[in-house]
Amino acid sequence: SQQGEEDPQALSIQEGENATMNCSYKTSINNLQWYRQNSGRGLVHLILIRSNEREKHSGRLRVTLDTSKKSSSLLITASRAADTASYFCATDALDDKIIFGKGTRLHILP
Amino acid sequence: DTEVTQTPKHLVMGMTNKKSLKCEQHMGHRAMYWYKQKAKKPPELMFVYSYEKLSINESVPSRFSPECPNSSLLNLHLHALQPEDSALYLCASSLTPMGGERYYEQYFGPGTRLTVT
């Protein structure tokens, strides 16, 4: 069963704008990760946030985690054409398996 | 070397064929994973090897047979596949197996695009 659910499923924005994606999950977690996948290729790890952290930054990426609401958000600032990709959140279930959400397909318009 | 390599990149096979997918990493990672990904869907975990031992099998049909000959190599043997098995097969590795507070960023290979005819 899918642990993470991303919202929105698809997002198109103009280059230079900020993109925000959300992820909700159902069970308790140790940490949450965000991955990027360019079309038909492998996934690239972006950022990991632990359950005792509320916010984390990495370059143009900002991730928040609200364990009370079982949700996380990924903000990409000053978007670029190269940011066009699918973005997945991934959580570790109680049985130590990592489960990916359905993903958000982000398209940056020139 | 922070790369996971997978061969072949593309594979077309008939339902009676036997083929193998290969995955290799030289990062000293002790956990390796096979995922299956259909178009516009998230990766689905198939198998996990921890310290060269199969630790998780997500009820995958026996026509998929994993093998971990050593800590750097992971194979997926395919036999009598069905057309619905056509997908992108992704291999990944992490420094240690998942669990608790351990940090387990996964490094993914580029995948093998499998088509079963």
How would you sum up this structure in a few lines?
The complex is a heterodimer of chains A (110) and B (117). Chain A is mostly beta strands. Chain A has strands at residues 5-7, 10-14, 19-24, 31-37, 43-50, 55-58, 61-66, 71-76, 85-92, 98-100, 104-109.
Describe what this molecule looks like in 3D.
- The complex is a heterodimer of chains A (110) and B (117).
- Chain A is an all-beta fold and 110 residues long.
- In chain A, 0% of the residues lie in helices and 56% in strands.
- Chain A contains no helices and 11 strands.
- Chain A has strands spanning 5-7, 10-14, 19-24, 31-37, 43-50, 55-58, 61-66, 71-76, 85-92, 98-100, 104-109.
- In chain A, the strands form 2 sheets. In chain A, strands 2, 4, 5, 9, 10 and 11 form a 6-stranded mixed beta sheet that branches.
- Chain A is globular.
- In chain A, 36% of the residues are buried.
- Chain B is built from no helices and 11 strands.
- Chain B has strands at residues 4-7, 10-13, 18-25, 31-37, 44-50, 53-57, 64-70, 73-79, 87-94, 107-108, 112-116.
- Chain B starts with a strand and ends with a strand.
- Chain B is globular and about 40 Å long.
- The model of chain B has no long low-confidence stretch (mean pLDDT 92).
- Chain B is mainly β and 117 residues long.
- At the A-B interface, β4, β5 and β10 of A face β5, β9 and β10 of B.
Uncertain ranges of chain B: none
- How many strand elements of chain B? 11
As a percent range, the share of helical residues of chain A equals under 10%
Helix content of chain B: under 10%
Assembly level: heterodimer
Q: Tell me the total number of β-strands of chain A.
A: 11
Structural class of chain B: mainly beta
Taken in chain order, the helices and strands of chain A follow as: EEEEEEEEEEE
Q: How many helices of chain A does DSSP assign?
A: 0
* String of helices and strands of chain B: EEEEEEEEEEE
Q: Ends of chain B: how far apart?
A: 36 Å
Shape of chain A: globular
Question: Please, how many helices of chain B?
Answer: 0
- pLDDT below 50 for ≥5 consecutive residues: which ranges of chain A? none
Mean pLDDT of chain A: 90
For the largest beta-sheet of chain A, the strand count, sense and barrel status come to: 6 strands, mixed
How much of the sequence lies in strands of chain B comes to: over 45%
Q: What separation lies between the terminal Cα atoms of chain A?
A: 37 Å
Radius of gyration of chain A, CA atoms, in whole angstroms: 13 Å
Largest interface: A-B, 24 and 28 residues
